[in-house]
UniProtKB/TrEMBL annotation:
InterPro entries: TPR-like_helical_dom_sf, TPR_rpt, Ycf3. PROSITE patterns: TPR. Pfam families: TPR_19. Keywords: Membrane, Repeat, TPR repeat, Transmembrane, Transmembrane helix. PANTHER family: TETRATRICOPEPTIDE REPEAT PROTEIN 6 (PTHR44858), UDP-N-ACETYLGLUCOSAMINE--PEPTIDE N-ACETYLGLUCOSAMINYLTRANSFERASE SPINDLY-RELATED (PTHR44858:SF1). The keyword Repeat applies. The chain crosses the membrane at residues 89-108. This is Unannotated protein. The keyword Transmembrane applies.
Length: 400
C-alpha cells in the first residue's frame, strides 16, 4: 500500500476529526432554533404561508440530514473500532442536548410569542401558548425551576394541556426529579394515549430507572402512532431501542445455559438490537453470543452472519490473526448467499479484504457491487468515505 494514512482501520480512526462532530452538533442546534423562530414568526403573522411552508421544509430537511450525519458518524466510529463501555454516558449527554432543542420545536407548533414586558391577553388559549413558549425558552436556558413554574401556570389555566404536562415532566427529568416526571407523563398519556412525545419520554424515564420491559411497552405503542419525524430521530440518534433491547435481553440470555430466546418472549430483532448496543459498549464476546443464538434459530440470518463476521474481522485486524479474518470472510460469503446484494456484507467484506488481507482487487469488486445497488444505506456510504476505503483501494491498485 502506498497511502499510509489509510493503511489500517486504526489509522483511519486517527484521521477522524472530533471537531467535525462538534460542528455538526452546532449546526443541528442552529437549525432547531431556526425552526422554533420560524414557527413563532408565522404564528405572529410576520411570515406568510407560502414562505413559511418553504422555509419549514428546508429547515426540517437540513435538520434531519444533520441528525442523521451525527448518528452515522457515531455509528461509523463504533463499527470500525468499538469504544470501551462509555457509550451510554455519552448517549445520555447527547440526549439532553437534542431534546433541549427538539422540545422547543415541538412546543413552538402551538406557541405564540410574548415580549419580556408583555402581559397576558385574557384569552386562555393564547395565554397558555405564550406560557408554553416562555417555559420552553427557560428550559433551553437550563432554568428548569422557572420552566416548571411556567408549565404549572399554564396547567392552572388549562389543566388538560398534554403538551404542558409532557414537557413539565421533561424539565423535571432534567432537574433530577424523575418521580414528578413519571406522574406528569402518566397523566399526559391518560389524557391523550396517542401523543407520541409523552410515549418517548416515558420510555426514557423507564429506561433510566432500569425498567426496560416497561420502556419497551411504550416504544411498541409509539410505533403505532403518527409521530413527527423528529421524535423518531431522537430515538434513533440516541440508540434508545438498542439500549432497551439490551436491558431486556441481558438478564435472560447472557447467562450460563440460556434458554431459547423465543421461549422467553424475544424476537430476532430484539437480539440484533441488543447485540448492536453491546458492540458500541465494547462487549464483543457477549455480542457474539447473541449472534450465535440468532444463528442457532436461523443459520441463514444474514444480519447475524454479517455482523458476526464484522466483529471477527475487527478482532483479526487488531490481533493480526489471519485465521479470524478468513472466518470473517466466510461469514460474509454466507450472508451474501442468504441475501445476494446485502449491502452491509459487501462493505464489511471490502474493508476486510483491503485492510486485513491485502486483497485490493477483491475489495474493489465488493465496493463496485455496493456502488451498483439501487438502495445504498447512508451509514455505510459514510463509513466508506470517513475511513478512506475507496482512497486506500485506489492507492493500492494505482487506478481510478
Amino acid at each position: 500500500m502506498t497511502d499510509d494514512t489509510v493503511a489500517t482501520p486504526g489509522a483511519a480512526i486517527a484521521r477522524l476529526d472530533p471537531d467535525a462532530l462538534v460542528s455538526l452538533e452546532e449546526e443541528r442546534d442552529f437549525l432547531l432554533r431556526s425552526l422554533e423562530d420560524l414557527e413563532r414568526e408565522y404564528a405572529a403573522g410576520d411570515v406568510d404561508a407560502t414562505d413559511f411552508a418553504a422555509l419549514k421544509d428546508d429547515y426540517t430537511a437540513r435538520a434531519g440530514a444533520v441528525l442523521r450525519s451525527i448518528a452515522q458518524r457515531r455509528m461509523a466510529k463504533a463499527i470500525v473500532a468499538p469504544a470501551r463501555s462509555r457509550g451510554r454516558v455519552f448517549a445520555w449527554i447527547g440526549l439532553v442536548v437534542v431534546i433541549a432543542g427538539l422540545s422547543g420545536v415541538l412546543i413552538a407548533r402551538g406557541s405564540g410569542t410574548r415580549g419580556a414586558g408583555d402581559s397576558a391577553t385574557g384569552d386562555p388559549i393564547r395565554d397558555t401558548r405564550q406560557l408554553l413558549s416562555d417555559a420552553q425558552q427557560a428550559a433551553a436556558a437550563r432554568d428548569y425551576e422557572k420552566s416548571i413554574d411556567l408549565y404549572t401556570e399554564a396547567l392552572e389555566i388549562r389543566p388538560g394541556n398534554v403538551e404542558a404536562l409532557t414537557y413539565r415532566a421533561w424539565s423535571n427529568v432534567r432537574a433530577g426529579n424523575a418521580a414528578a416526571a413519571a406522574t406528569d407523563l402518566e397523566a399526559a398519556i391518560d389524557l391523550d394515549p396517542k401523543y407520541p412525545d409523552a410515549r418517548v419520554f416515558r420510555a426514557i424515564v423507564y429506561a433510566t430507572a432500569g425498567k426496560f420491559d416497561k420502556a419497551h411497552e411504550q416504544l411498541v405503542v409509539f410505533d403505532t402512532l403518527d409521530a413527527p419525524p423528529l421524535m423518531d430521530q431522537v430515538i434513533d440518534s440516541q440508540r434508545l431501542r438498542e439500549r432497551v433491547a439490551l436491558g431486556r435481553v441481558e438478564s435472560k440470555l447472557l447467562v450460563a445455559d440460556p434458554p431459547p430466546f423465543a421461549g422467553v418472549g424475544f424476537t430476532l430483532d430484539d437480539l440484533f438490537l441488543a447485540a448492536q448496543q453491546l458492540d458500541l459498549d465494547g462487549r464483543v464476546a457477549d455480542e457474539l453470543t447473541l449472534y450465535a443464538q440468532m444463528l442457532a434459530a436461523n443459520p441463514k440470518e444474514q444480519r447475524a452472519l454479517a455482523y458476526q463476521g464484522w466483529a471477527l474481522a475487527r478482532a483479526g485486524v487488531a490481533q493480526k490473526q489471519t485465521a479470524l479474518l478468513t472466518r470473517a470472510v466466510d461469514q460474509f460469503d454466507k450472508a451474501l448467499a442468504a441475501k445476494p446484494g446485502y449491502a452491509d456484507a459487501l462493505v464489511f467484506r471490502s474493508f476486510t479484504y483491503q485492510f486485513g488481507l491485502s486483497r485490493s482487487a477483491d475489495a474493489k469488486a465488493d465496493l463496485a457491487a455496493f456502488d451498483a445497488l439501487a438502495d445504498k444505506p447512508a451509514a455505510l456510504a459514510t463509513l466508506i468515505e470517513t475511513y478512506g476505503l475507496r482512497a486506500s483501494i485506489i492507492a493500492s491498485l494505482g487506478t481510478k
